[in-house]
Amino acid sequence: MPSFIRYKGDGVENEFFDLFNVIFAASDSDRLRVFSLRHKVYCEELGYEPIDTKNRVERDEFDGRSLHCLIEHRATGLSAGCMRIVFPDTRSLRGYGLPIEEHGVEIELDPEIRSEDLCEISRVAIPSYFRSSRVEEAAVDGFGEFVFSQQERRFFPMIGVSLFLCATAFTGLIERFHVLAMMENRFQRLLARSGIRFSQVSRPIHFRGERAAFYIDQRYAEDGMRGSILPLYRSIQDELSRQLIEKGSVPGVMSSKTLCKILL
């Protein structure tokens, strides 16, 4: 278990925000940062998607109906992680029109959950130099001689969980409570240790390792969150709420009027 999950007191969220910014990527420039980070991770580092030699971005047909979030390392301005929340395609005649269905995954959900109430956490990406807490691996290629400090590296395990805290905050703020995600079991167990307990709703498949579809009700996620991580979650929630109001509408997802109705 990452050591930060065992911390007590109200200082963890302050330490996290001393090191990182949480950004609602609503502008074209911020979304470009997201797509560039995804290219670095999914195309260059992991080889999951083809290299875009011209633009060095990774994007797909789901990005136009998604909310995007970016975590930025304050000291360097480097993108430390990103994720998106994809909304279903209301025009789809089959299924939900979510990325999870691309891989032929058959999910079993409560039949009372309407497709328009669903969303999916997708494209979680963290670059290699923020995935390792080892000194010799935590240097940034092409960024001079910069090497992360021991204090900074101690917080690297927080990045992945913090992206899911962002997703939990987002889905609560916009009242889209029924959330899906494709995950490895080991990451699902890590989230469970922080009190975010997803339920498996499909058989495992072999896709970039063994993964399965998981589901959570955002309201239960909030209620079950461990006290040690709740202050960080509330800080992320406050920050994203402020940015949602400040940055306004999200093309293809929701209007300013809808946001104001939800948030004010």
UniProtKB/TrEMBL annotation:
Presence of keyword DNA repair: no
Organism name: Salinicola corii
Keyword Transmembrane in annotation: yes
Leader peptide range in chain numbering: none
Membrane-spanning intervals of the chain: 155-174
GO MF, one annotated term: acyltransferase activity
Record keywords, A-Z: Acyltransferase, Membrane, Transferase, Transmembrane, Transmembrane helix
Cited Pfam families: Acetyltransf_5
Protein name, per record: PEP-CTERM/exosortase system-associated acyltransferase
